[in-house]
Design goal:
Layout lengths: L1 E5 L11 H15 L3 E7 L9 E11 L2 E13 L2 E7 L1 H4 L11 H18 L6 E5 L4 H8 L11 E6 L7 E3 L2 H5 L12 E2 L2 E3 H8 L2 E4 L2 H6 L10 H6 L4 E3 L27 H13 L13 E8 L5 H14 L3 E8 L1 H13 L4 E5 L3 H10 L2 E4 L9 H7 L4 E4 L2 H6 L11 E3 L4 H15 L2 H12 L5 H16 L5
Parallel strand pairs: 1-2, 1-6, 2-5, 6-7, 7-11, 11-12, 13-14, 13-16, 14-15, 16-17, 17-18
Antiparallel strand pairs: 3-4, 4-5, 8-10, 9-10
Helix pairs in contact: 1-17, 3-4, 4-6, 9-12, 10-11, 10-15
Length: 479
């Protein structure tokens, strides 16, 4: 199959979150499976890499005027190309996304330019795979201006990575972008008298996916639907949840060069070396001075979604009554950064906090910790819990979204982590106490570690599910 894949960020060229990782890994896995894949993304100011310019000039006319862009190409592997839309005015800015008045023009232009790029490069896709609100206008365009073209025969897939970010704009953008007013309606682009790009993708794509089966269920409810649950329920027959994968070459404790020692499920001795290295890094007391303590860890954005409020409420209680240690790496809202700094000051030598993000340190934490904390309020997919399982570090997670799909509770025969349901600090405390009980049973803990490390979270498995979906669309079956 020929697959055109639109994404507003693609690692390693650009990334703010999980979308960038998906846009790197999924197309690569599809190309390795024998498909022809072309990824289209903006050429941001910060993009670095081996790019080849083309002689193509993209010209698009909107009611607000004509815009032009160049096209550059990178070739990560056989059958896999990344095309960059080069418009300095729209994408040569300090950050990928913003709150500027022309955000609708930036990504409206990107969506249409990506489709025109396929025409100019002579690439007639079987599937056009769109991702998040920044590509919503492309789903609309495939039903309108591009319908008479070769792209009109393609089937479209729209993936929701995080429903909370929707691309809402005043309804005046309909005229500004030349969108047909007949689509400004409840089952189209209209959203409480505004224009919603996410809703456009949901309404006009042939098939919808999101990044875990549980999240696909959750977003059809009022609690998680971000006011789009109605149209998602109306299109539930077209909605599929496919769990994201991870890069199992980069995240492999048996060959991770960032670690103090390598290890695998047959021999955990290297993990003990990694724990000692991590404790030194965070200036925790040397283990010779006391009996070993269980080490809990957390890595991620310091935001309400990630359950930082629960961590700040539960940890003082746990540290006061239990002999444990904690290390945390992350950055985000100042109130959370200040709260974690205060926690470290209150429990010196038992809590280590690093504000910011460091990829190498994230690897060392996954390997050196005994348990990983991820009490998210909601989590479309999540990656850190999969890294933790692969590194033999049982995660403590709230049973939501991809966390629920990827972690098996310790109460089960095949358990590899600890789950709790209610978004409350006492529920997190309960789950941590269960982890401490397992810590005191080394044989049980080693069994959990081995089961987690044996799980297959590779992109191969996820790509197979996407291929089945693509094939059903091309064959004319319901999405």
């Amino acid at each position: 199959m020929r697959i055109l894949f639109l994404a507003s960020e693609v690692a390693p060229f650009s990334k703010t979150g999980g979308l960038g990782d998906v846009a790197k890994a999924l197309p690569a896995a599809l190309a390795r499976a024998g498909h022809e894949v072309r990824v289209v993304t903006p050429l941001y100011a910060a993009v670095r890499g081996d790019l080849s310019p083309t002689d193509q000039v993209l010209r698009l006319r909107f009611p607000f005027g004509e815009e032009r862009a160049g096209l550059a190409v990178a070739r990560p592997g056989p059958g896999h190309e990344v095309w960059f839309i080069d418009h300095r005015g729209y994408f040569g800015r300090p950050s990928l996304y913003g709150t500027s008045w022309d955000e609708h023009r930036r990504f409206g232009f990107f969506s249409i330019a990506a489709l025109q790029a396929a025409q100019r490069m002579g690439f007639a896709p079987d599937i056009v795979h769109l991702n998040d609100w920044q590509t919503g206008p492309a789903a609309v365009a495939l039903r309108s201006g591009f319908a008479p073209t070769a792209l009109g025969a393609a089937r479209s897939v729209f993936t929701i990575h995080n429903l909370a970010y929707q691309g809402n704009f005043p309804k005046s953008v309909m005229a500004d972008l030349g969108l047909p007013w007949e689509w400004f309606r409840a089952d189209g682009l209209e959203f409480y008298d505004t224009v919603n790009f996410m809703k456009g993708g949901i309404a006009f794509a042939d098939a919808l996916t999101t990044v875990s089966p549980r999240y696909a269920e959750e977003i059809q409810t009022q609690a998680y639907g971000c006011m789009l649950e109605g149209i998602l329920r109306a299109r539930s027959d077209r909605l599929t949840g496919i769990l994201n994968g991870i890069d199992d070459q980069e995240w492999d404790p048996a060959q991770d060069a960032l670690l103090a020692a390598r290890y695998d499920a047959r021999d955990f001795s290297g993990k003990a070396v990694c724990k000692a290295d991590l404790r030194r890094r965070f200036q925790l007391p040397r283990p010779e001075q006391m009996s070993p303590r269980p080490l809990f860890a957390s890595v991620g954005r310091l935001a309400p979604q990630k359950g930082v409020d629960l961590i700040l409420e539960a940890l003082p209680f746990m540290l006061s009554r239990s002999n444990l240690e904690v290390v945390i790496l992350g950055s985000g809202e100042p109130r959370y950064e200040h709260g974690l700094a205060a926690l470290a000051a209150r429990f010196p030598g038992r809590v280590g906090v690093e504000l910011g993000f460091d990829t190498a340190l994230a690897h060392r934490i996954e390997a050196g910790a005994d348990f990983f904390l991820m009490p998210s309020q909601y989590e479309p997919c999540g990656l850190n819990q999969m890294y933790s399982l692969r590194y033999g570090t049982p995660p403590v997670v709230r049973a939501t979204g991809g966390l629920d799909n990827s972690v098996r509770d310790a109460a089960l025969p095949d358990g590899d982590g600890f789950k709790f349901l209610h978004f409350q600090a006492d529920a997190l405390v309960w789950a941590m106490e269960r982890a401490l009980a397992v810590w005191n049973s080394p044989g049980v803990l080693d069994g959990m570690r081995r089961r987690g490390m044996a799980r297959d979270f590779s992109w191969r498995a996820s790509a197979e599910r996407y291929q089945v979906l693509y094939q059903s669309l091309v064959a004319g079956a319901p999405g």
